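Hello,

Our lab assistant flagged a job as stuck in the queue for most of the afternoon. It eventually completed. Since we weren't sure the result was trustworthy after the delay, we are filing this so someone can double-check. Below is the sequence as submitted and the structure that was eventually returned. Let us know if re-running is recommended.
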Amino acid sequence: MANKVRLANNFVVAEGEEGEIYIFIDACKDKPQNPRVIYDGKDHAIFLHSPDDKIILDYIHPEVREKLRHSTGVVMVETILENIKDSYVADLQIVDNIPVDWSKIGLKSWEEAALVK
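-- returned structure --
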């Protein structure tokens, strides 16, 4: 499978009753493989659905950034229209900058990432 990086078409970050963080995204074609979210506490995050499928979560709302920064994992919920296809826990990796080496996700800069759809 080709290494692909794409922007999430739609996503929602929500907090559950017990403080758990949910990220709702459009369903992916394949099952997740070692899913994790990389986040620097700022505007963007990267969801690594699998080694070959990276999804840029472009713009994390300021009201949830602090809660996300203090979480160790998030519940990823993949949806098709208003139906849940799958849900699972993804590890959350907090970093100083996302990511320092853009070549790890096949890009040179955020500007180049904005062109990937």
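-- support follow-up --
The delay was a queue issue, not a problem with the job. The result is valid. The chain has two helices and eight strands. Helices lie at 62-69, 110-113.
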